[in-house]
Amino acid sequence: MKNMTNTLLKGVLNLLPMVVSLWIFWSLFASLDELGDFLLRLVGLPTLFTGEGFLLVLLLVFAAGLLFSVSPIVWLYDVIVQQLMRFPLFKTVYGSINDIASLMSQNEENKGQQTVLVKQSNGSYVVGFIMADNAPEPLLAALPEGDWVPVLFQLSYQIAGVTSLVKREDLTVVDWSFEEAMRYSLTAGITSTTEVAAQ
């Protein structure tokens, strides 16, 4: 009975990430395809095959990318955004989504993200991430003299984290990629331990 339970659990643990990932991508595809089909119906065009709406949305996004390389379009868009930013709720939601999108769109060499260890008072270390080379000027003006940098301490199993300002001299730089270290922190090290045990 115990072997059967372990085998069932192993099957679930191996299949679940794949099934959930495929379901998320399929849901995204279906939603975008439905949106594209809706746009086609608005202009009176029939749907000829499944995925036509998805291709239309991709084409529109590509066209938007081309338009945003034209200065007048960028200027007009910025004006519209600035007007909408007057509404507090829109400012909060748009600002958060825009920050995430900006983080994702940066190239690896421009991210400036570095994995570090921060020593605690009891001699233990906490994994952190330097997210920017410098802290904001208002914070630097309020802090004592020193080379302060913002360090993110990721909370396990959560998207949220805690940002602390730490002196650069108190950081131990780790030769570990941001993606791998973030994955380690998000899963509290369970993912890495499981992978090592499986080898």
UniProtKB/TrEMBL annotation:
Residue intervals passing through the bilayer: 12-32, 54-77
Record keyword Cell inner membrane present: no
Keywords carried by this UniProt record: Membrane, Transmembrane, Transmembrane helix
Protein name: Putative membrane protein
Organism of origin: Sinobacterium caligoides
